[in-house]
Design goal:
The chain is built from nine helices and two strands. By secondary structure, it is mainly alpha-helical. The chain has two domains: 38 residues; 116 residues, no CATH class.
Length: 187
């Protein structure tokens, strides 16, 4: 929190707080568990950085790298991730719908009798949906149409996350080998 008006009451609440327990039999093992989890998290973050560096290095030699670098907000972080998400060869997916289903962006409608319900696709690579959603959120800072597209559902009462997911869904249609790339590379 950066707002000074919000920080002061929190600091006051922390200094006047009473401990939930003073039982060392509970505090000590939980403190040790937190230390172990922090150590694991450090290793995981280091491995994640190594993967990002390797992916970025490999992406630079890919012939489609300039296209993904040019996407609004993609930059050094999202361009390699989007390149990996779209896959090689680029004709791996027949259409944007296939990518949306594979990445888990397309919702699933189930029907039984007179009832129907909609839910997320559960059987999908768990890193692809966040990749598209995070990039869509970043693209609102770099593309006017993305910012306007993101604002429309929010003006109608949708949550920020719902608006960004809708934008990501639309970006998949426009940005993959099946979308804008065909327009950019056409003679």
């Amino acid at each position: 929190m950066r707002d000074a008006d919000g920080i002061t009451p929190r600091l006051d609440a922390i200094t006047s707080a009473m401990p939930l327990t003073t039982n060392e039999g509970l505090i000590t093992p939980h403190a040790l568990l937190v230390q172990a989890l922090v150590a694991q998290l450090r290793v995981t973050l280091h491995a994640s950085e190594d993967c990002d560096k390797a992916m970025a290095h490999r992406a630079q030699s890919h012939p489609d790298c300039p296209f993904f670098d040019a996407l609004p907000g993609a930059g050094a972080v999202f361009a390699p991730r989007l390149l990996v998400a779209c896959g090689e060869p680029c004709d791996r997916y027949a259409s944007a719908d296939a990518v949306q289903r594979y990445a888990g962006m397309a919702l699933v409608t189930e029907r039984s009798g007179n009832k129907s319900w909609v839910h997320w696709r559960l059987q999908c690579p768990k890193v692809l949906r966040p990749t598209f959603v995070e990039w869509a959120a970043e693209s609102t800072r770099h593309a006017f149409w993305a910012r306007a597209y993101d604002q429309q559902p929010r003006d109608k009462g949708a949550s920020y996350q719902a608006a960004v997911r809708a934008l990501a869904f639309t970006w998949i249609r426009k940005s993959g080998p099946w979308g804008l790339k065909k327009i950019v590379h056409s003679p």
